[in-house]
Design goal:
Blueprint lengths: L13 H14 L3 H30 L9 H5 L2
Helix pairs in contact: 1-2
């Protein structure tokens, strides 16, 4: 029977493997689940960095005199 979720094979250096294994043991979860959680966190960090970069670029062209007020946007 095929796996429910896609799988990936990853080769880790021994110290990295041991560190992840230690984290998984501490949280009493499987190594697979810990790797999944770490990948998810890494992707969130990457997304945050990308959004921060976009915000910095937009901030360069921001002109307060052209900005809408809270009342103009939300009506109160």
């Amino acid at each position: 029977m095929p796996a429910k979720n896609p799988r990936i094979h990853v080769v880790l250096e021994k110290p990295l493997y041991q560190a992840v294994q230690s984290l998984a043991r501490k949280e009493q979860i499987s190594l697979s689940m810990k790797i999944r959680d770490l990948v998810r966190e890494a992707l969130e960090i990457e997304e945050d960095l990308a959004l921060a970069e976009i915000a910095q670029e937009r901030d360069k062209t921001f002109k307060r005199v052209q900005a809408l007020s809270h009342k103009q946007v939300w009506g109160s």
